[in-house]
Design brief:
With 349 residues, the chain is α/β, with parallel strands linked by helices. Helix content is 54%, strand content 13%. It is built from 13 helices and 7 strands. It has helices at 41-51, 66-75, 85-92, 100-113, 124-156, 169-179, 184-214, 216-221, 229-239, 251-254, 279-294, 301-313, 315-336, and strands at 9-15, 19-26, 31-38, 55-61, 80-83, 259-264, 267-273. The strands form 2 sheets. Strands 3-2-1-4-5 form a 5-stranded mixed sheet. Helix 6 packs antiparallel against helix 7. The radius of gyration is 26 Å and the shape is globular. It starts with 8 loop residues before the first strand and ends in a 13-residue tail after the last helix. InterPro entries: Transp_IS110-like_N (IPR002525), Transpos_IS110 (IPR047650), Transposase_20 (IPR003346). This is Transposase. Residues 219-299 form the Transposase IS116/IS110/IS902 C-terminal domain.
């Protein structure tokens, strides 16, 4: 009796909210199946098990529903891989026509040849904390927009309430309303929105503080100068698993804090820091570095090093360099289970 060797297959999933396009290729690149099913773990698992029973890799891109589907399919024992959408888009863009069907086939092809960059999928708890941080960050941005709107309104009438960066700005706007009651119907709703946003931001901050206080790793990371609970939690949720990085020095490029380099033949070009996949994290690290350079009173080797860079290359480069160093220090503390150490001369890195 002739027993055929099972065909090794590779699957690409192009996910949208309602449905997912699926493509199955064999090891030679021959298309065995193409179709679409609802974006539901049971439906996806069923079609893969029926159409690709000897599947070696299943590829899907990073996206809003990816963590949920990735965990669900992994839980069903399927070899699903989450790949970096930015990396995949460069490969998929080479196709003449961009359609969901073509993207699914392109992802299957990437799985077949092994040309992909695997992305980390956060654990449910990490995703929860990250969502809290993101929600707070978005509310802060909304509050900033409201403040700028109020400032623009009063300026257009020749009235000035000072800088929106000061905490007294809303009070100064209230004083303008008292002195100019005709502006009450214009400015009072904006003030009410500002107050509501401030209250809800405080709710998120209280929850995040409690999480940081209960987490021993976060408490150790917060011993680093300039690092508070927000930066510590943002860093931990950005990294998720510190063991993913074989060296702490890899954190700089990962967080978009390393200079861009182009080298080919006789050309060797470098410029400022590159694209930031996590803008919130890079912003927090830059702010923390600014605190180290300008507000930290105690002497530290970290601050002394940063000030030398400042004197040599200017504040912006120094702040980026210190931000990069902070990421390295936090990762090392997290991995080693230690705390920031202080020298005899003061608090030092």
């Amino acid at each position: 009796m002739d027993h055929k060797t099972p065909v090794t297959t590779y699957v690409g999933l192009d996910i949208s909210l309602a449905e997912t396009h699926i493509c199955v290729l064999d090891q030679d690149g021959t298309r065995l199946y193409q179709g679409a099913v609802p974006s539901d773990p049971d439906a996806l698992a069923d079609i893969v098990q029926r159409k690709a029973p000897n599947c070696e890799r299943i590829g899907l891109e990073t996206g809003a529903t990816t963590p949920w589907l990735w965990r669900a399919l992994r839980g069903r024992g399927l070899p699903v891989i989450c790949i970096d959408a930015r990396h995949a888009s460069r490969a998929l863009s080479m196709r003449k026509n961009k359609t969901d069907k073509n993207d699914a086939q392109g992802l299957a092809e990437l799985m077949r040849i092994g040309w992909f960059k695997e992305a980390n999928v956060r654990s449910p708890q990490t995703q929860y904390v990250r969502s809290l941080l993101t929600a707070r960050y978005q509310l802060r941005m909304s509050r900033k927009d409201v403040l700028n709107q109020m400032r623009g309104v009063v300026k257009s009438f020749g009235l000035f309430a000072g800088s929106t960066a000061t905490r007294r700005f809303p009070a100064m706007v209230q004083e303008i309303i008292q002195d100019n009651p005709q502006f009450g119907s214009l400015l009072a709703p904006l003030l009410a929105v500002h107050e509501a946003l401030t209250r809800q931001i405080a709710v998120y901050e209280d929850e995040l503080k409690n999480i940081a206080e209960r987490d021993p790793d976060a408490r150790r990371i917060m011993t680093v100068p300039g690092i508070g609970y927000l930066v510590a939690l943002a860093f931990m949720t950005a990294v998720d698993d510190p063991a993913r990085f074989s060296s702490s020095n890899k954190l700089g490029p990962y967080l978009g804090l390393a200079p861009r380099v182009r080298q080919s033949g006789e050309t060797n070009w470098s410029a400022g820091i590159g694209h930031a996949p996590d803008k919130m994290m890079r912003s927090y690290l830059y702010q923390a570095a600014t605190v180290v350079l300008t507000k930290t009173a105690s002497w530290s080797a970290l601050k002394a090093w940063g000030l030398r860079v400042y004197k040599r290359s200017g504040f912006k480069r120094a702040a980026v360099a210190v931000a990069r160093k902070l990421a390295v220090i936090m990762h090392a503390i997290w991995i080693n289970g230690t705390e920031f150490e202080y020298s005899q001369k003061g608090k030092a890195a």
